[in-house]
């Protein structure tokens, strides 16, 4: 009998220790924003966790990064209604704001605006005066109060849309651009989009968090310009416009909120591009296929089942993130179809510094983003090899930014169109969150 009691006690102690380890591990992943690791580990740790509030936090954050905003809102609602005391005031406020932002992202603009206004009132009633950032966020949704959410409709069949590969035309290139050792002219992918019966080329851009128009294009389309100003690309002032309907082949997207870049920020730098189709629209589809040989973008009637040997390797964090591996070392790339080339960042350099220093050449180049020109000291790698899913990838001549420290550069790099053009077909599945590539025969 004593032996049986001892075995039970040992079992209980082991269970408690395992639960504590599970909580500590998941908390560490959440605190460090290691979403890929969380996606892989949460299913196996969830049943062992002691803290229900921590499980809800993990489930909410994972859902928010895997295109399941309704599930994220449900988890946050339960978290805030049942675990205020465990969270504490500031943490509860942060999660309440995140919940409202996700509600706004779903197109429930009035609910988001009213919820943020209540928070502002509570804070100011308690003596807090620094609420300008919240007021800006509240106005962001209040302006859209009477508009309907984004919706997508299409016939129940595979829909193929032709795309074009274009070379970006940069004006006055010789006056500002410093060319590097790499003799490369990249391409961007454009799809024909019909707005008010006129066709425009939109860049298909998984690196853009939202659909974007240049000011001259928005006004030519006759769009409703919303009565507020916004920040575009982190620092540039812009506007927003309402697109009642746009068509991509036989697909109709209604109630699109597009960001509008002011003319003087970019028109003097780039020509030949009218607009950008961003992740707000792209993420509305369960799957998109790119057939590079036929130059077709396909919206399949039904998403493809995840192939054997493939694990979920995509996340949404504003833009699209891709998980890869090099020598069993995990890598995280921005999967950016709005980037003509590929580039690696300082986090990659620190993982493979010895290898890089032995093979790379120093160089200096100029780069262009919306409203900004950067002169960058870089390293030119003769090649970069890694694994994506079950496929090996080998790329020649890739620039690496060894001292990059911007927000985007917290990941290992950016894989753009020259990465995608190596393959015959690419499946971007945003239901099960995986990228699958097949090489040209």
Q: Tell me which CATH architecture of the largest domain applies here.
A: Beta Barrel
Helix content: 25-40%
The rounded Rg comes to 24 Å
CATH class of the largest domain: Mainly Beta
What percentage of the residues does DSSP assign to strands (E)? 25-35%
Within CATH, the superfamily of the largest domain carries the name: Acid Proteases
Shape: globular
Q: How many domains, as an integer? A: 3
Q: Estimate the mean pLDDT confidence.
A: 87
By helix and strand content, what is the structural category? alpha+beta
Q: Catalogue the unreliable spans.
A: 1-17, 173-177
| Number of helical stretches of at least 4 residues | 15
Distance between the termini: 69 Å
Explain how this protein is built.
This protein is of the alpha+beta class and 441 residues long. The longest helix has 30 residues, at 2-31. The protein is globular. The protein has helices spanning 2-31, 35-45, 52-64, 69-82, 84-87, 89-105, 109-125, 132-142, 173-176, 215-220, 263-266, 279-282, 346-351, 353-359, 417-420, and strands at 151-153, 159-162, 164-166, 169-170, 188-195, 198-204, 212-214, 224-225, 230-232, 236-248, 251-261, 270-271, 275-277, 287-291, 296-299, 314-317, 319-326, 329-335, 342-344, 361-369, 372-388, 391-400, 413-415, 423-429, 434-439. Strands 1, 3, 5, 6, 7, 8, 9, 10, 11 and 13 form a ten-stranded mixed β-sheet that branches. Strands 16-17-18-23-19-22-21-20 form an eight-stranded mixed β-sheet. A hairpin with a 2-residue loop joins strand 20 and strand 21 (372-388). Helix 3 (52-64) packs antiparallel against helix 4 (69-82), helix 4 (69-82) runs antiparallel to helix 6 (89-105) and helix 7 runs antiparallel to helix 8. The model is unreliable at 1-17 and 173-177 (pLDDT under 50). It contains 15 helices and 25 strands.
């Amino acid at each position: 009998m004593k032996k049986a009691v001892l075995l039970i006690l040992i079992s209980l102690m082991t269970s408690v220790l395992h639960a504590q380890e599970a909580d500590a591990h998941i908390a560490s992943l959440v605190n460090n924003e290691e979403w890929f690791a969380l996606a892989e580990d949460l299913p196996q740790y969830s049943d062992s966790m002691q803290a229900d509030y921590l499980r809800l936090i993990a489930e909410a954050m994972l859902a928010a990064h895997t295109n399941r905003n309704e599930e994220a809102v449900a988890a946050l609602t339960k978290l805030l209604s049942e675990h205020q005391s465990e969270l504490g005031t500031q943490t509860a406020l942060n999660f309440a704001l995140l919940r409202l932002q996700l509600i706004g992202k779903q197109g429930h603009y009035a609910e988001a605006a009213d919820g943020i206004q209540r928070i502002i009132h509570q804070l100011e009633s308690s003596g807090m005066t620094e609420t300008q950032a919240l007021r800006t966020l509240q106005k962001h949704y209040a302006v859209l109060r009477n508009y309907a959410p984004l919706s997508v409709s299409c016939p129940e069949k595979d829909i193929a849309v032709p795309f074009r590969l274009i070379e970006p035309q940069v004006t006055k290139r010789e006056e500002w651009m410093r060319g590097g050792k790499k003799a490369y002219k990249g391409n961007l992918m454009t799809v024909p989009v019909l707005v008010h019966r006129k066709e425009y080329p939109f860049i298909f851009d998984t690196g853009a968090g939202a659909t974007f128009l240049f000011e001259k294009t928005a006004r030519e389309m006759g769009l409703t310009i919303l009565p507020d100003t916004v920040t575009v690309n982190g620092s540039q002032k812009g506007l927003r416009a309402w697109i009642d309907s746009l068509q991509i082949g036989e697909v109709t997207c209604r109630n699109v909120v597009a960001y509008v870049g002011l003319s003087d920020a970019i028109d003097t730098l780039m020509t030949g591009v009218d607009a950008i189709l961003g992740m707000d629209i792209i993420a509305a589809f369960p799957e998109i296929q790119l057939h590079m040989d036929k130059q077709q973008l396909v919206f399949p009637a039904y998403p493809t089942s995840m192939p054997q040997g493939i694990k979920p390797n995509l996340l949404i964090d504003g833009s699209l993130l891709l998980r890869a591996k090099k020598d069993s070392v995990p890598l995280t790339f921005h999967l950016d179809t709005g980037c003509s080339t590929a580039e690696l960042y300082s986090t990659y350099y620190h993982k493979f510094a010895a290898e890089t220093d032995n093979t790379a050449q120093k160089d200096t180049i100029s780069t262009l983003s919306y409203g900004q020109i950067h002169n960058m000291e870089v390293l030119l790698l003769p090649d970069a090899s890694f694994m994506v899913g079950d496929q090996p990838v080998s790329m020649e001549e890739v620039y690496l930014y060894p001292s990059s420290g911007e927000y985007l550069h917290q990941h290992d790099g950016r894989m753009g169109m020259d990465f995608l053009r190596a393959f015959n077909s690419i499946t971007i599945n945003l239901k099960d969150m995986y990228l699958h590539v097949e090489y040209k025969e």
